[in-house]
Specification:
Helices cover 84% and strands 0% of the residues. The chain is mainly α. Keywords: Membrane, Transmembrane, Transmembrane helix.
């Protein structure tokens, strides 16, 4: 289960970086994919669930 939360966290972080890059390039009027903007809610859910799950497993280990 810990591995699943870690994977969710990594995917969420990658999608967050993609959203940031998309926002920067959109501000600069550079054509770029809108995939990361269109998947805003799922990426945030993955990031939050992965973060919470990783923290729970980290605290159980200590």
């Amino acid at each position: 289960m810990k591995k699943i939360f870690d994977i969710m966290l990594i995917i969420g972080l990658v999608m967050l970086v993609g959203r940031i890059v998309t926002a920067i390039l959109t501000k600069m009027d550079v054509a770029f994919t809108t995939f990361f903007s269109a998947t805003q809610i799922p990426s945030m859910v993955l990031l939050i669930v992965g973060l919470i799950g990783s923290e729970i497993y980290k605290r159980k280990k200590v």
